[in-house]
Amino acid sequence: MRRKVLAVSLFAAMLLLACSLSSVLDFAKKAGELAPTAQALASQVGPTVEAAMTQGAQIMTQEAPGQQNGGGGQANAMNWLSPEESTILKSFHQEMVVHVKAAGKAYDLYKIETDYVRGQASRQVIVQNGQPVMETVSVGGTTWYRSGNEWISVPASQNFDNPEALVTDAMDSELADPAHWKANGTGTVEGMKVYRYTYNASQDLAAMKQDWQGLLMEIPQLSGATNARVTKVQGEVSVLQDGTMVSAFYRVEGQVEQNGQQVPVEVTITTTLSNLNGNIQITPPPGAAGAKAPVPLPPGATLEMQMGTSSIYTVPDMTVAQVMQFFDQTFARQGYKVTTKVGDDQNGWTLQVTDPQGKMHMLMVASQDGKVSITIVK
Fold first, then answer.
1. How far apart are CA 88 and CA 263, in angstroms?
2. What is the domain partition of the chain in residue ranges?
3. Fewest CB within 10 A of the end CB: N or C in the chain?
4. What's the gap between Cα 269 and its chain centre?
């Protein structure tokens, strides 16, 4: 029978989500404090986001849903897929909540909502952990993320990935053994047949200790806790015929040592999909839809970043001199007035331009990494 190798283990993704998201949230906080040039921001976006988005996921080799080992009632591993890998779903809404009970307090550590439309390759992600909401919107070739009240755009090559891909190295735990998952009947979700599976482990899962400790570091009231220990893991998942996970619930129980006392900790991770194949519309955020440049640009100019009133474009296959010649000719022909022009082709140019409507714009043109960079400040 044909076998597949999964790119995602939902449990590992969810349990380790808090650890991975911290780097993204830290980046979001930094973005809100940015005063340097947009180029400095661009240099920060790629490495930070890609590191959080591309870390490895747990690998599991799985068979078709609903099949069982002979007479044992234990589910064979399945072709469990993340929603974006689904062959059935074209759009969906996803909500993921990480809830914590520890040291006399109970609260949601993280809440993530995603709207996804396959044909548009678009998604909207909202992350909450007691901090200001971080939101990203991807439409076509551009992604915008919100820092405070400001939307900043980055090219598609630096897209935020789906939440389930926000994972660290895979856990080498008993969850990797399909014998521990048992078939638990079938049901329906929004009219689609699903196969249900359960997992239950009550022994000390020593292999999960390091990952558990990492998650606990995200829980404020457990600061300084040591000797993390997992004592029980329970799981329930529902998958479509092609193996797409449409719901999952996990409860992880354990203990830590804090101030000489054993402190019980419980973390629940719940993921649900809704509006399956629904009419979901994702559009650029307000004020960001008009990525149209305020001045005419040379052919092939591509928006690299937009932050507030500043935009950065790059132009391949042209020199600074050629770009400046384009501006000289086009501005004169279309009624733009250049009131200030300082610099040279080697070190770059700074221009102050007034458009036909009387609005003033600042342009900076320079060579960078084999391309011409055009920064426009409205």
1. 44
2. 4-274, 302-377
3. N
4. 18
Longest dimension (CA), the chain: 84
pLDDT tens-digit readout, 175-184: 545 566 789 9
316-359: pLDDT as tens digits: 899 999 999 999 999 999 999 999 999 999 999 999 999 999 99
Q: Does the model's pTM come out above 0.90?
A: no
